[in-house]
Design a protein that fits this description.
The protein is α/β, with parallel strands linked by helices. Helices cover about 35% and strands about 20% of the residues.
Length: about 170
């Protein structure tokens, strides 16, 4: 079995005059990124291969996750930035077969689109939430009953769970 963790960057700031690629996390994002990192640790969701968009906000989201998990170094993958679902699927399929769990830290709408494209089963409530949107800092966990990444296909994934920071933080839910 292979597992894909799709993590959307945490909430970012939009400073005037700054190019999109350089946008940092805002205070809420700096609070939620470690919250999601803690969730990954608690749930033993440990990637052995990580692909991160080159955008500053994705790298800043990855930093507390890497620190919390002691996870492998991330590969910065330019193709993730502003990528459509087809490009993200290529990133997934290019994962080394020695990896069993891939974490992709990226952006919407691509992450939601690729998740919806890949998911064929899973809890109805989680699939409905995913179809409604992929909030900043949210995590989709997809499982595939295949042995190689090249065999990952549309509709073949099981959405094991879909979690947003507001699900974990009482302050976010308010």
């Amino acid at each position: 079995m292979l597992r894909v963790l799709l993590l959307r960057h945490a909430k970012s700031d939009r400073p005037a005059g700054m190019i999109d690629l350089d946008r940092p996390l805002n205070p809420r994002g700096r609070r939620n990124a470690p919250l999601m990192a803690g969730y990954l640790v608690t749930e033993n969701l440990r990637p052995d291969h990580v692909a991160v968009s080159p955008a500053r906000r994705t790298r800043e989201t990855w930093e507390p996750v890497q620190a919390a998990l002691g996870a492998p170094d991330a590969t910065i993958v330019p193709d993730i930035y502003e990528a459509p679902d087809s490009a993200l699927l290529k990133v997934v399929r290019a994962t080394p077969d020695s990896a069993r769990c891939l974490l992709v830290v990226g952006h919407n709408p691509g992450l939601q689109d690729v998740a919806l494209r890949l998911v064929g089963s899973g809890p109805a409530a989680a699939r409905d939430r995913l179809a409604e949107g992929f909030p900043t800092g949210a995590l989709a966990v997809l499982d595939f009953d295949v042995e190689t990444w090249a065999k990952v296909r549309a509709g073949a994934g099981r959405l094991e769970r879909f979690v947003a920071p507001r699900d974990l933080d009482a302050d976010e839910a308010a």
